[in-house]
Amino acid sequence: MAQPPSSKDSPPRFPYDHVHLDGRTLEGGGQLMRNALALSALTGRAVTVDHVRGNRKGKTGLRPSHRAAVKLLAKISGSISDGDQVGSQSVTFCPSTPEDTSCRNNETILISLKNVAIQPEYNINLSSPGSVFLIFQALYPYLLYVGSRAGSECIRLTIQGGTNGTDSPSYDYATQVMGPNFARLGLPPLSMTLNKRGWSVGRIEIGSVTFYIHPLASAGTESNVENLNLFKQSVMTKAESMVLGACFPQINLLDHERGKINCIDVTILAPDTGFAQERTSGASTIRTFVERQTRRALRKALQALDPKIFESPSDSLSDDCPEQDTRIPIQVHTSEPTSTTSRLYILLVAHTSTGFRIGHDILLGKDISPKKGKKGQKSHAKGGRDKTDVETVADLIDECVHGFMQELADQPVPDSNPKSESVSKMRSCLDQHMRDQVVVFEALGKLHKNKTETGSQVQEDERYWSLHTQTAKWVCSKMLESDHIG
């Protein structure tokens, strides 16, 4: 696995020089490509990614969903792409650079909106259930920035593909966690509509999601409400401020407290069939079993956490969780039947007193009853015998709840460096998967920030950074060429 080269080894570049990235660096997957594309279109800097998805097992190179993102982003930004065929190991993206794009103090400045032409509606139709949300990740920053040129209140983006699959955000996570957290951090309102679920597990099904993207307002505005109001005025009056450029909000996660947990939402997607020849203590279907067992496992696990992270429960608990030992309400947000046990999905979302959402999810992704003649799953806890269907589902529930507890536990860790004096490290207000989604917006917001900053006595604990987060930060540092991004 390639590691990011030291900045001392890289010769200084002028802001619009061609950037070359090794696609095997750190996480070495599709996120590196998506972030590079987004920042290339925003800055006007050409980028070449070699060894595309070079750390992936099996097929490397460009996949159909990545190709779709490259094609549409090139189309809407007036860019030229090369190597954008499925399976390509090297992709080059060359934006058109308007003449009035400027740079100051050797920093990359975002493209001018003066010559940008944007439509109010776009559609991407995949023939496979590639994740619609990973495609969205590549397009979202650019559409936010140029959206005021569309002449409508928001841009409507419909992507046909997968909405629930492995190793990618689900529709449920995107709408319950990602969208609300973006808004809480100062980005404009983002809403989405599920037209049809698309699955990459079980029998392949293509789904569809429509995103409604409200653009950033012109530089100088402060809040979401002001952003949206100014945008509406600019559409009506065609104010010159539309041409001057938009301003990404300045995001410093340590400016935000996580707050106390005040309730937990549960989403269950599971079949309404029963377990084959097994008793499930009164549960009539797999879905009702998962609902009941998930709440039971949550109540037990919550008892082991520090009570200080919870708000005091209300005097009257909700009907969904009448048990007296429940510290906070646990309620079912969504419960939908699916056609097979391979489509057994669980999402747990904690709401906090400061308005953030902390989520964790899991997908079974395979049928629990093995086909005749094939070996089942081995149970290490049961003497090596094959697991029963109930045990397989119960283990999935326990695994999801355990991961969720890991997201909720927040313990500040003193810095072991004696020179740091009283500096301490703490976890951010976001869960691990949401954390890497925010990196690009942190970096873009810092382009507008005064470099004169006071040293903070609290730093973010990097132990909670996933490889995706580290990769996103590396791409931002290369594409934006700024010492204060990191």
From TrEMBL:
Sample GO molecular function, one term: RNA-3'-phosphate cyclase activity
Region of interest (Disordered), ranges: 367-388
Domain RNA 3'-terminal phosphate cyclase residues, every copy: 26-481
Biological-process GO terms, alphabetical: RNA processing
Superkingdom of this protein's organism: Eukaryota
Amino acid composition bias (Basic residues), ranges on this chain: 371-382
GO cellular component: nucleus
Alphabetized PANTHER family for the sequence: RNA 3' TERMINAL PHOSPHATE CYCLASE, RNA 3'-TERMINAL PHOSPHATE CYCLASE
Protein name as catalogued: RNA 3'-terminal phosphate cyclase domain-containing protein
Organism: Penicillium atrosanguineum
The organism's taxonomic lineage, starting at the top: Eukaryota, Fungi, Dikarya, Ascomycota, Pezizomycotina
